[in-house]
Write a structure and sequence with these properties.
The structure is a single chain. Helix content is 44%, strand content 14%. The chain folds into 2 domains: 7-209, Rossmann fold (3-Layer(aba) Sandwich); 217-370, P-loop containing nucleotide triphosphate hydrolases (Rossmann fold), CATH 3.40.50. The longest helix has 18 residues, at 48-65. The termini are far apart. The protein is built from 16 helices and 13 strands. The chain is globular and about 75 Å long. With 412 residues, it is of the alpha/beta class.
Length: 412
Amino acid sequence: MQAVLRPEVVATAKKKGFTELTGIQLKAIPAIAVGWDVLVIAPTGFGKSETAFLPILSKLVEAKEGGNANGIQAIYITPLRALNRDMLERLSFWCKELGITLGVRHGDTPYSERRKQRDNPPQLMITTPETLGSMLVAPKLKDSLANVRFVVVDEVHELASSKRGLQLSLSLERLHEKSRAFQTIGLSATVGNAGEVAAFLSPLARVVRTDGARQLQLVVEFPSEKPGKETAAKAELIARLIDEHKKTLLFVNTRSFAEGMGSLLSLIPSLKGKIAVHHSSLSKDARVETEDRFKHGKLKAIVCTSSLELGIDVGDVDLVIQYVSPRQTSRLVQRVGRSGHCRHLAPKGVVVAVDALDAAECAVVARKAVANELEPIASLLQYARMLWTCWRTRLPASLWTSVPLLLKKPSG
């Protein structure tokens, strides 16, 4: 592997405490180093981010030595601004040690920082799908995209089947118009139809996945009590589980559920002052404070929505509780995978059902999660390409509305 990575990168990895590479890193880093478009699939805690940026950093060091460090050369795309912030913290050490300039750009980036990026673009830019679209039309900054050589799309499963993924596909096609051919790397922990998701990234993308998966420790609980006391029984079960573990993430499906459950649990004496709520409607400062307090052991649990479902670093979690069925196997695997966030540890989760029908659904979802039977992701790639064709050929706007009809499968 030292023959693939630059000596400076290997030395920095050792300084960071990396003693050996994981299985997915041994398989995927050579593929990325030779220039393939790849979709990297591995469970949480297997080092997918390092799999992508170690060979990219090696190439950036090489370019800098050759005097070719102008403009933005690598773009790291994540679905959330919070993930942008997390990746900035993780990459800052590497870039500082290797002398590579780094920047982050999203909706919260102040104008002063945007101006600096316009006048002196960083070699590596962390951003979101929406902000990439803005960068493509930003005065002067758009010209710095001509040197892009690498694009990394993190948590690609969150984008492939959504409107945001459609927007990202169009932005990447537009980026191809500005830049020479760039390498595309996707990262995901939960993909049911890997080939289609790889095609979402690039027609040439190859799938590289780990040989094994972490075995989930997953149970379904349905505490029943006398009528009128069901909620209290569930709250007592959740409180007991939190007390029995060091750090717990309690996932719910809506923000109103998060606020209600957070208020209910805070009334339990053992959890008073040791629990907080985290969702996307809260301010950035409130979310960051909660993440930091949890990471440093000042909180026992966080009641959260999908805002903490992805790879934001909140420290070591030893239990994930899912309240009410998450509706999707892939979502449950993603959430439970936030616990035991290390390849030698097993993720541990408890699904708490609210009624008999929910218990049946929870049992099916949990069984599929343990068996790693994930739902296929319905990619919007074809739709995106047809829209792009309409845009490039300047077809009448009236034809755009017929595009979804052309994509519908015949009934029967």
